[in-house]
Specification:
single chain, mainly alpha, disordered C terminus, transmembrane helix
Length: about 350
């Protein structure tokens, strides 16, 4: 075992930050693809040969003919011009190719760092798991798209929610790993602060999942009032739970899904605020205090954007901002949780702790 140079550690962090940024971009472009109803414009999955778009008029017409064969065209977009088709095609093509680029930007430097012996065993395992999740995510993306090609005009909201949540897991893992590489420990903090930080990150992922269900079921286009929903603070039980079995309402009932998304958001805000108060009262560690404040502020901003998006009936710009801000909240929550779950620091060393690599 030997210590890696500080410059190599910085390079590792930079690489992981770039990959996380590309995942962020992929998710945002994916959101735009969904909001412009472009996700079914490419009806085939060709991971290697689908990189290039049609290069001739005949190629464009062939792609358009494939789209004309699916229910979305026949029932929603009949009469669409080739120019209109190109617009939705470019969104889906862009989403897929940003994802391909992300995979390459991860894999090639990973192999280089591995060849140089710059990665410790734990980091190799962690990064390999992240790459595997990314590969699974690509397959899940096609699994989602395929749900809208035969008997539906839109993709399954279950698969959409799984696709987005898995992307957020990959993003969260990259953020965590980038922060942990070469990191020093922190001074000891109460265990409840650590639990609170991890709970915030977990609740954020749960909230993103329910937000994806709202988006996939188009539940943001109904009950466009706030703070009331269906003219009440709490809807009638008969309206919330009319489906049988009962649990199905949390996945199929637009009112229940939107109400749950609101309630999880309020819960997240309360947990963040309580955690902030606890952090200010129980530790003088600046990084911990700032982290708690950043998460709380981001949650407050995100709730405000969500309310505006709902009241405006989900315009594309606000909806995209809402999705992007969710990733910012997740990033801040992961950075905060990572900091609080590091081993407590010994007396400050002369140089930063560095990643160890096996020869």
């Amino acid at each position: 075992m030997r210590p890696v140079s500080y410059s190599t550690v910085r390079l590792l962090r930079l690489w992981l930050v770039v990959v996380a940024g590309l995942v962020f971009l992929t998710v945002v472009v994916g959101g735009a693809t969904r909001l412009t109803e472009s996700g079914l414009s490419i009806v085939e999955w060709r991971p290697l040969t689908g990189t290039l778009p049609p290069l001739t008029e005949a190629g464009w017409l062939a792609e358009f003919d494939k789209y004309k064969a699916i229910p979305q065209y026949q029932l929603v977009n009949r009469g669409m011009t080739l120019g209109d088709f190109k617009t939705i095609y470019w969104w889906e093509w862009g989403h897929r190719n940003v994802a391909r680029l992300t995979g390459l930007v991860f894999l090639l430097p990973f192999l280089w760092f591995l060849w140089r012996g710059a990665l410790g065993r734990g980091l190799v395992v962690g990064l390999s798991a992240i790459f595997a999740l990314g590969a699974v995510q690509a397959g899940v993306g096609w699994w989602m798209v395929s749900s809208g090609l035969a008997d539906r005009i839109y993709v399954s909201h279950y698969r959409l929610a799984f696709h987005l949540t898995l992307a957020c897991l990959v993003f969260a893992a990259l953020v965590w790993t980038a922060a942990r590489v070469g990191a020093r420990g922190i001074v000891a903090v109460p265990a409840r602060l650590r639990v609170g930080a991890v709970a915030l990150a977990g609740l954020t992922l749960v909230q993103i999942y329910f937000g994806a269900l709202v988006a996939g079921l188009r539940a943001g286009l109904v009950h466009n009032t706030w703070p009331l929903i269906d003219d009440r603070l709490i809807p009638r039980a008969a309206d919330l739970f009319f489906a049988d079995p009962l649990w199905m309402n949390f996945f199929e009932n637009a009112l229940t899904i939107q109400f749950t998304h609101r309630m999880v958001g309020y819960t997240l805000a309360l947990v963040a605020l309580a955690h902030l108060v606890d952090a200010l009262a129980s530790t003088r560690e600046r990084g911990v205090r700032r982290g708690a404040l950043a998460v709380t502020a981001a949650v407050a901003v995100q709730i405000a954007i969500g309310v505006m998006t709902l009241l405006a009936r989900v315009p594309i710009d606000l909806a995209l901002l809402h999705q992007a801000t969710a990733l910012v909240v997740l990033m801040l929550a992961m950075l905060h949780a990572e900091r609080l779950t590091r081993p407590a620091a010994a007396p400050a060393p002369a140089a930063p702790d560095l990643v160890l690599a096996a020869r």
